[in-house]
Amino acid sequence: MKFKNVLREAAFIDGQWTLAKSGKTMPVINPATGVQIATVPDLDVNEAKQAIEAANAAFKSWKKTTAKQRATMLNRWFQLITDNADALAELLTIEQGKPLREAKGEVLSCASFFEWFGEEAKRTYGENIPSNTNSTRLLTVKQPIGVVSAITPWNFPISMIARKAAPAIAAGCTIVIKPAEDTPLCALALAALAEEAGIPCGVINVVTTANPIEIGHELCTNPIVKKVSFTGSTPVGKTILGLAAKTVKKASMELGGNAPFIVFDDADLEPAVAGAIASKYRNAGQTCICTNRIFVQAGIYDKFVARFQEEVEKFTIGSGLDASTDIGPLINEAAVAKTDGLVRRALEQGAELHSGGKQDAAGDRFYQPTLLTNVTDDMEIAQAELFGPISTVFKFEDEDEVIERANNTPYGLAAYVYTRDIGRVWRVSEELEYGMVGVNEGMISNELAPFGGVKESGIGREGSRHGMDDYMELKYICMGGI
């Protein structure tokens, strides 16, 4: 098994592979089989403090390295991730469940962030400001903010770390990462490759724990930590913001979504169906930017539903290690129960079932790709972040109506629009209250573009040149006596 080459079963603090002082461990379970694949340390709050202090000690020297030095190390890290992509993908599939080809794509996406931000490290420019007097000169510089804590999710357990660690380290910060309890192995594998790349002791630390509330509290309130970055649900994000506010920490939040996917009558049908399928069913629908509500204009509605159903029913369900698998397991039994409950209640409220709608025979954590129509905006399933392989299709009549319905949610992460009318492209894209809009495109995330939401979907941006700003402070210097 290739993944054995990158498997680590210890936390990583101050450059040392560390077991819990208590001797406690927690299992890592393959969601496709229910079989334990590894154990990792169950660290306590004192060990989290140790990681924070190690990061703080390392920051004193790391912040003084040149941008070129940091870029060189990040490029080495990028190359090692790329060289080990097959092993990392296998590890990701085994601990998270997604099909191996999706896992390989995520690993390469992860690598791209280290390459991109290594290059951006050399472009964190300040500015010279025209002065208001002859005797002064005004300028700004950008400096690393300090120790960063990163709390990352289970659905993209390697790329979500890269989107935080790469810009933080490129900026000259140090970082303490708390991966999700279900998927700690990818974080530890990244730390192993960082060590091999020559990243100094204490610059990256990984704290594994079965007690996320207590450890998370420490990562959000410890005064040494200057920045908190979180990806996860909106309710948890609100709690983290409240904790970070106690010491006025900088915070970036990538939170929940309820993405509309809008198909107008003039859209090309086949690309629209393909885009909706790709956006909805990637990672078994366990994606924050995946399609949640499919709005189809009346003139094309019946054709779209028929073609969409044909594609949904082609999916193969099974272990992600099987090359024929399209849909892997959900992360745990609770996710299956939540998904099934949403479907059951929608059907009770009048939704019509076209495909799926129940747990699959492949195993306890597998749920059939599901298609529901006759869904109304007031149903629970229309308001919830689905995070499962469920498609809900809504009919609409005109542009103004669908914009109002699409915006009728507290979330504002991603939205999708399919149309061939260039005027409509501009009008709808500008009116949608979302941080990201895909036009005739269902897959929008990459390292080059700013990723993030508005309203209750988040604060800040990851990726792109803007992704460095969340890890730096802008300092103004006024020089007098010139």
UniProtKB/TrEMBL annotation:
SUPFAM superfamilies, per the entry: ALDH-like
Membrane-crossing residue ranges in chain numbering: none
Cross-referenced NCBIfam families: SSADH
Native organism: Pontibacterium sinense
Domain Aldehyde dehydrogenase residue range list: 17-477
Top-level division of the source organism's lineage: Bacteria
InterPro entries reported in the protein's UniProt record: Ald_DH/histidinol_DH, Ald_DH_C, Ald_DH_CS_CYS, Ald_DH_CS_GLU, Ald_DH_N, Aldehyde_DH_dom, Aldehyde_DH_Superfamily, Succ_semiAld_DH
Pfam family, one: Aldedh
One GO BP: gamma-aminobutyric acid catabolic process
Keywords assigned by UniProt, alphabetized: Oxidoreductase
Protein name: NAD-dependent succinate-semialdehyde dehydrogenase
Active site: E254
GO molecular function per UniProt: succinate-semialdehyde dehydrogenase (NAD+) activity
Protein family per UniProt: Belongs to the aldehyde dehydrogenase family.
